[in-house]
Design goal:
heterodimer; A: mainly alpha; 5 helices; 0% strand; B: alpha/beta; 16% strand
Amino acid sequence: MTLAAEPEAGGKVRDLLAAAILAGRHGRPLGARLAERVRDPAGDLRIEELGFDSLAWMEFCIAIELASGVEIHPADISRMRRLSDIATWITRQN
Amino acid sequence: MDHAAELDPAAYPALAAACRTENQLNRLNIDIEHVATPLELSALAGQARHLPERSARWLRSLRRLDRSVFVRPEAYRRTRLAERILRYADPATPAEGKQLLVGFCGDVPRLMVQTAFILQALPAAHWDLILLRMRDGATTYFDGMDGVAPDFPGIVQFVRREAGAGRYRRVVTLGSSSGGYPAILAGILMGASRVVALGGRLPRQLPAPALADLKPSATDLVFVHGGDYPADEKGAAGLARQFGGVPWPVEGVDHHAILYELLKRRELPAFMRAVLADDSPEPARAWLDRLRPWR
């Protein structure tokens, strides 16, 4: 998958994040409200709202890399606060 | 790809060296952690000098969690009963006289901690383990398992037959997280002596009444949860209302990963002996009456 420049990138990055979150949850879907906030580029989901442990974050990062070729690690995410921070970081890698 | 399905420790150095990124190596290592035996992890550590530093660092982190895996590994060998059903047994010890633990993983394809640590906590001379894992992306066992059976009773029959459950002196089923509820139903169907649900709860969508309405007869049910984690305490209470049985809080645990906490405390073997009621000579009800919160 190729991430294009803004604004088109916003939707694709959110799709990527949604899929990676699902991978972190080992296929268990998010509740409807949280899923909506993940999809919304204006959403301001705090990272801890995902309730991920270290294994889940590794699965999340693996999914991001497999789908987009962008390498991100749990150590990178530990310095971020919101899902939008991850989205911005991914967009800037491209 | 399930790297660990045919894990050969001798192949790991080449597999690890072929990983170009940290995430690729994490994928390999995570999949190995899901299935590897203590002997296999110990063998990997024996090759440390041939491994990339990242791999050696991973093995050191495992060693910090349970050094005994690398010093005196329990003699389990891993074989495959089906794509997602593994058998762990010491072939030198016959089934007769041993106890059989049937483990149902939840969304995460491990029983809360690396499989080798579960095995290390169960003496291989006294236990065999059958480990069921849902396929990637699945969230239930109740739709059956490919290559095993089209429904849940069929899965249980498969396990009972292929594991030779009747040969063992005692059968216990155990499930972690969303594997807890299927473990309960499997335990009832198999006539298990005991069922243990770790952080389990009633699912949002119950299976058909023929399963959902099952009630245990002679089976003990124990619902373990973090003593300071209200979500799982509520889940345990819900299971107790449905099936009877006993919630068992683990004090000082305020999150879902109970076994990981016990592993860090170096209490996992003692806890497993207690919660599985290994060799308890008393009638089941008397033993349950004496259950106290685990500290």
